[in-house]
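Run: sequence + coenzyme A -> complex structure.
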Amino acid sequence: MPFRIRSVRDVAEYRAAMSAIGHYFGWAPSEEDAERFGKLLPAERLHAVLDDGEIVAAAGAFPFALTVPGGELPCAGVTVVAVLPSHRRRGLLRRMMDAQLRDVRERGEPIAALWASEETIYGRFGYGLASLSHNIDAERHSVGVRRELPREGSVRLVTHDEALAAFPRLYERVARTRPGMIVRSRDWWAVRRLDDRPGERRGAGPLVRALLERDGKPVGYALYRLFQEGSTPESWAKTIRVVEALGVDDAATRDIWRFVFEIDWTDRVAAYLLPVDHPLPLLVDRVNKLRLTVWDALWLRVVDVPGALAGRGYGSPGPVTIEVVSDPHFPDNVGSWTLAEGEVRRGRRRADVRLPVDALGSAFLGGISFRALAGAGRAEEGARGGIEKADAAFRAPAAPWCPEIF
Ligand SMILES: CC(C)(COP(=O)(O)OP(=O)(O)OC[C@H]1O[C@@H](n2cnc3c(N)ncnc32)[C@H](O)[C@@H]1OP(=O)(O)O)[C@@H](O)C(=O)NCCC(=O)NCCS
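>> structure
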């Protein structure tokens, strides 16, 4: 019997579809898990592949908005993509990606974004690496965090409800200045970011919610857990696992990170997914002791080229002409697109830059320059000075930052 692909229809199917990715995490989703997840990922956005009535693969897409330079855009947040090992390499991922991308386009979402389990998978579906992230695993005692700078705020540990009331507004203020951030609903905060069910702790302690205030007003927060290894006092090693920390301005960012690094009786500070322009490496006296590593972060797919290009802001009025030379799914994306005075038209001008749609995805948030893409042979200059012009237009005020894997 041929494979069928369609959206899931009820909680039992939803759970079976989640079980495909669950297989790779050693996790069997309960009915409650499926219901919680369903608050953010509606059933019609969860595609499943059925083999003789049994679900053997799935791919979902959160309907959220993502911040882009100059605003935000509806975005398909691709998630829970998995094919059971019994059905691997029979083209099921390809079929799911085709169905999902068509659906995303019909719904009018001009971009899709994802975190890749393996960097080798998604380029063939038109996704490009749009941001990198910094991870640290710092030796806390070896790192001084600019103690000489004045402290302007104080920190309070708060309850879940206080965090739910205060943190979203702080996050939103930062998101207005950064591309790549999910516009989080209240459910998103409750179900995901502030989720502290034991399964979320991964061997660490409960979620600590620290609120930074200045002149009585909230200006930053840190979410973290304490993780302890070793069974005897002399072998204890305690790590602060930072889930997310931010400040609404430079002083608040410094203060919240100083707070984290000054937590007594701890050995390490581990924080993942920091933006590449995060001040921490410049804030500490011994940058090497941060043990900084670079990872891929958000991958972005421009699904509707004119819609996506018209939906972001630019650092220069143009005109700039971008020629999309190939798209594995949408032939109507291919061609020249001219940006001028905030409008996007199919262009007759000579292209400033030529590139495939996945490379446009890389450039879209302003985190990867056309210069860097050209250096890697992923884009080509079409007219003299074209790369510089395109970079001036696409530049973002801050590096993209998606502080969570979804
Ligand atoms: C990754 C995964 C979804 C692939 O599913 P699949 O059904 O075996 O993939 P397909 O047979 O449709 O392959 C489609 C193409 O992707 C390629 N591909 C698949 N998995 C790949 C991988 N891990 N690395 C590199 N290429 C891969 C195939 O070679 C094929 O290439 P081609 O058509 O260009 O020749 C599956 O292996 C899986 O579930 N892995 C574990 C969970 C996971 O990593 N999910 C992704 C979360 S972001």
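>> summary
The chain has a mean pLDDT of 97. The first helix runs from residue 11 to 25.
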